[in-house]
Amino acid sequence: MTDDSLNIQDTPLADALSERYLAYALSTIMSRSLPDVRDGLKPVHRRLIFAMHQLRLDPTAGFKKCARVVGDVIGKFHPHGDAAVYEALVRLAQDFAARYPLVEGQGNFGNIDGDNAAAMRYTEARLTEVARALLAGIEDDAVDFRPTYDGEEQEPVVLPGAFPNLLANGAAGIAVGMATSIPPHNAGEICAAALALVRDPDADTADLLRHMPGPDFPTGGIIVEDAATIAAAYEIGRGGFRVRARWGVEKGKHGTWQVVVTEIPYQVGKARLIEQIAELLEARKLPLLGDVRDESTDVVRLVLEPRARGIEPDAMMESMFRVTALESRFPLNMNVLDATRTPVVMGLRDVLRAWLDHRQEVLIRRSRHRLAAIERRLEVLEGYLAVYLNLDEVIRIIREAKEPKPALVARFSLTDAQAEAILNMRLRSLRRLEEMEIRREHKALTREGRDVQALLKSETRRWERIGTELEETRQKFGGGTLGTRRTTFAGAPAADAAPAESYVEREPITAVLSEKGWIRAVRGHVEETAELKFKEGDRLRLLLPCETTDRLCLFATNGRAYTLKAADLPRGRGDGQPVRLLADLSNEDDVTALFVWREGTRYLVASSGGRGFLVRAEDISAEKRTGKQVLNLRADEEAAVCVPASGDHVAVVGENRKLLVFPLDQVPELARGAGVILQRYREGGLRDARVFHLADGLTWRLGEKTRTEVDLRDWLGERAQAGRLPPNGFPKSGKFG
Q1: Catalytic residue among 21, 24, 100, 122, which?
Q2: What is the value of pTM for the model shown?
């Protein structure tokens, strides 16, 4: 067998991969993830609705098993797995997921807790009035059809879309290299905005937002964004909305109270939300909250009890909004397929304009279809009227002629369609009353045909008709239980001047850092003599008394400063956790100093090479996990010292055990840098440094005792000198202790 018979082609691997990946990407974008701007549906949803339409599952019809629907969709239109199709069907029926459900379900279709629906063999479904509106005119040549994947059936490219589904129900999807996220809106408000655009084609986004102020989520909630932010998001089609839970205060006996949450943000699972609150409560991240209970039935009711009755409800809820999903952000990214099936990010005005243009195209196609039907019917009626005056002759021709159809055509100058209709006419239609009804029908159809022709010739009339349809849609879906707005608006919350630590319960703790870099917090202020357990081979490095509201500064050998919240330190009976999990330290870096950050304080930082400077506390504060570079180091150096600069003189000691004392004002204050030379060395480097008051003397530690040297004249000098050997009794370690 030759290569030619196998049709083997040599193709560069890069070209073959790029070609196939491009095909996959286009399939994902156009046939899976992005909705069509005209009907707001992805292919799987469109196929579900059309399959249910073929099964005659109208709102007035009975229910059918979801397994039957899914089977039809897979067998005829959508060659994918049944689980994916059923999940799409379930979502269309969930009133907490879809603002205007397209499917009415019977049975267990899941709940807001995140529980799954029952198997499709147990549940039943039919279409809703909203889905019927999307399908209106599909039998009247309103849209194009294309062959299905096996070529045996036809499926619509897009639905007629008399309902503004894209904005009303929203959409979410992730394609290849792009995504879409459109929140649900109120259908009545969408129609009002579309009407405004019909009446004034030059209306801008601000004009439209007077009718349609923002999203309307099926689960309610409160949008806390200022009007300018909302307008900017709708102008370009990108942005986001902060949504908060709706809550109220219920008073109890003896001054007690509790907060009751009745609506939660859209797409937040209630069960997972309660788990999150409980976990944060256990981790002591919610100091104002005492307990949480779920008292929900088919209506959401979460009860939040304060830790103490003196707490303000607003303060407690603000602390909850900060760290829990009771406040969430819903992104806006109106990335859709336009009428040419091209992905594009549209603003609000462009989305409404695309939908209105589609409605005009549907109106034109339906009108032409109706006009063609009228002309066909008028042709038949004119044939009837032509023979009513000569019924005897018609009967004679039919009885005697071997080929009555050509004879009728020749005798009465009929068309082929007219002759066929006369031959198919029933005998009882030959009565006089029938002739009168035919003339009335002919007259009415002639009048209707003139109206349709006038509609097709006048764009103004078409927009008037579309305006009437929009008003009917608004009346039908913009009121009642389904259409009433559920999400309300509130002013953006003012920036809270109180720091996050104000929501932490203040209590004394001690930070414990081990030699191997494990850190934890224990309750109370612990003495060094206390018995603390460590991992095998590890031991205590330092104890730092502090409070849970404090911020700690960790200065590392890489010259970077990191800020840790004392309340975030692991607590309990364990060994804690590596400090590298709290600060972004590499395995080569170690802790130089750990201290309580105090505003207004200055610190002396120095490298092992003997270079240093003064830095303010505000310049070493770094909330990011990656910290802030403070001391610039040379290749062979590391940060050796970071001590409070409280005093008027600096004492530095080198690895050569030479001590130098000089005035503090000779050290510059910088925000970042390499610093100046503090002490010169022929070999070795800096061992330790301390800032002190010369009048009080220099103190160092010897074991359990301390010693103070007051007479320092022999060691006083200028910055950058070599210094002299320290006094007798100075620690052999070369550190002040």
Answers
A1: 122
A2: 0.70
